[in-house]
């Protein structure tokens, strides 16, 4: 056999492989060529995925998959890391058929969903789509239905977050509604089943896209979305922030960080933050500041149903979900929208074992024909159900001031399974407030009194001391203890440390 030099062999191998290599390089150049984003968009779909994830960690799934040669599938899917933890992403590509969901695009999204569910990784959907692709007909609709089915399957396994960075119309709008949390960009994100043109043709109503499905409408009025931000980058950073409180899946450990001391000024203010008079309002955020670790926290739905607060934060480095009545808004009363807001938050925390801290100052459920007509009974019952079913979470409750009637039960009571419950020394727990109770129990005496106002005050004081004070609940073992406000954080920290031994 003649001798063949190493150099000649290398040359032959390179020549033989040059055509396939060149073909692959050309396909990659064509497939990954940057198309300048249109309209208000700042980044391409691939850039959005890369910006969401830790730098240099994005790995694309099936990057050459295409609905037609050279056109791509209409979505960029893959996985990467967020703060070192794997996360799956699916970003609609508005450069291809305006991001419309066709059969090929739906199949790509479904593959990403299946990968996320089976791997136990959170999934983030970046929505920028005009809806189902009309030329694909039933195939597009079938693909959308398969996406929705996997949205539902994923609920029990992994966190799902939707980001609305453009239109999210028609069938495309149902997927965000089936995910856990939705973030919208102000002025850019729109989510609706039917857009302005169809609404005008069908009903004669002349409404803008913002009025029908803008971020303001959905984060304030409808409650369909949960956070409004100013820019694309703000939205992606908010996703990273939200993920920092969440386990990767329902079986994973919580992302416990280093313990950070409470803000000393907020902690020092706890003994005086609550006014002595039950009718005087205060901001429950001051109480939250006095018990959580100092630093970042994330309030979801801050502009919707404001008489309740739903906040992610940390205590002793451990993620917690805080549910709190907000006396500064309508006295902290519960209504239909507030009930849905609380139930959704508690249910989510329960699925992923996130401890639930409930801070209570609630006068009751809002009475009247309007709320009864809105189904307050059903919506209130959803709160009860959410707390009862949140067995995987440690449930810790503190009655800060008042807790009356069915609202006391609903706000994380031991009756519903709270692991530990305390009340501040000035708290009141009763079937109804002193004023209402006295009016009901002493109608005749008040009617016959020479000075009914003085008698009412006297009887109310007696009721407050003999019936409503928390010592009755503590002596019955219904709550664990009566505590000073400044003792609250230590009690919560001690309880949460038990999680290490569960």
Automatic annotation (TrEMBL):
Q: Which InterPro entries match?
A: AccD/PCCB (IPR051047), AcCoA_carboxyl_beta (IPR034733), ClpP/crotonase-like_dom_sf (IPR029045), COA_CT_C (IPR011763), COA_CT_N (IPR011762)
Name the PANTHER family for this protein: PROPIONYL-COA CARBOXYLASE BETA CHAIN, PROPIONYL-COA CARBOXYLASE BETA CHAIN, MITOCHONDRIAL
Protein name per Swiss-Prot or TrEMBL = Acyl-CoA carboxylase subunit beta
- Which residue intervals make up region (Disordered)? 1-30
SUPFAM superfamilies noted in UniProt: ClpP/crotonase
Enumerate the spans annotated as CoA carboxyltransferase N-terminal domain: 10-258
- Specify the CoA carboxyltransferase C-terminal domain's residue ranges: 272-502
């Amino acid at each position: 056999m003649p001798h063949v030099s190493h150099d000649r062999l290398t040359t032959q191998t390179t020549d033989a492989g040059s055509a396939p290599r060149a073909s692959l390089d050309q396909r990659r150049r064509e497939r990954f060529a940057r198309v300048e984003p249109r309209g208000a968009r700042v980044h391409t779909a691939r850039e959005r995925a890369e910006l969401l994830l830790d730098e240099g960690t994005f790995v694309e799934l099936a990057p050459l998959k295409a609905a037609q040669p050279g056109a791509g599938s209409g979505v960029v899917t893959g996985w990467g890391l967020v703060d070192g933890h794997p996360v799956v992403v699916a970003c609609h590509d508005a450069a291809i058929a305006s991001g419309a969901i066709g059969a090929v695009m739906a199949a790509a999204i479904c593959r990403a969903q299946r990968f996320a569910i089976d791997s136990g990784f959170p999934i983030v959907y970046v929505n920028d789509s005009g809806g189902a692709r009309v030329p694909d007909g039933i195939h597009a609709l079938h693909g959308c239905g398969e996406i929705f089915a996997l949205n539902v399957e994923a609920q029990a396994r992994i966190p799902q977050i939707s980001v609305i960075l453009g239109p999210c119309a028609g069938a495309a709008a149902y997927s965000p509604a089936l995910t856990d949390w939705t973030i919208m960009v102000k002025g850019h994100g729109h989510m609706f089943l039917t857009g302005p043109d169809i609404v005008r043709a069908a009903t004669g109503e002349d409404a803008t896209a913002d009025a029908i499905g803008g971020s303001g409408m959905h984060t304030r009025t409808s409650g369909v979305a949960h956070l409004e931000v100013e820019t694309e980058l703000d939205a992606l950073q908010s996703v990273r922030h939200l993920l920092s409180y969440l386990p990767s899946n329902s079986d994973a450990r919580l992302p416990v960080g280093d313990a950070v001391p409470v803000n000393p000024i907020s902690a020092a203010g706890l003994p005086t933050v609550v006014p002595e008079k039950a009718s005087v309002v205060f901001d429950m955020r001051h109480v939250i500041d006095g018990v959580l670790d100092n630093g970042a926290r994330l309030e979801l739905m801050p502009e919707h149903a404001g008489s309740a607060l739903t906040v992610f934060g940390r205590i002793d480095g451990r993620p917690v979900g805080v549910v709190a009545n907000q006396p500064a808004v309508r006295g902290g009363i519960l209504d239909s929208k507030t009930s849905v807001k609380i139930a959704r938050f508690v249910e989510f925390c329960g699925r992923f074992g996130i401890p639930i801290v409930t801070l209570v100052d609630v006068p009751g459920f809002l009475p009247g024909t309007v709320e009864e007509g809105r189904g307050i009974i059903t919506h209130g019952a959803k709160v009860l159900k959410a707390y009862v079913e949140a067995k995987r979470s440690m449930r810790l409750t503190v009655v800060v001031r008042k807790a009356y009637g069915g609202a006391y039960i609903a706000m994380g009571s031991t009756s519903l399974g709270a692991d530990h419950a305390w009340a501040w020394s000035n708290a009141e727990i009763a079937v109804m407030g002193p004023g209402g109770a006295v009016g009901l129990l002493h109608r005749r005496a008040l009617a016959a009194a020479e000075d009914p106002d003085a008698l009412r005050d006297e009887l109310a004081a007696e009721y407050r001391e003999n019936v409503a004070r928390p010592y009755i609940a503590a002596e019955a073992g219904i709550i664990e203890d009566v505590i000073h406000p400044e003792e609250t954080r230590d009690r919560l920290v001690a309880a949460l440390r038990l999680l290490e031994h569960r």
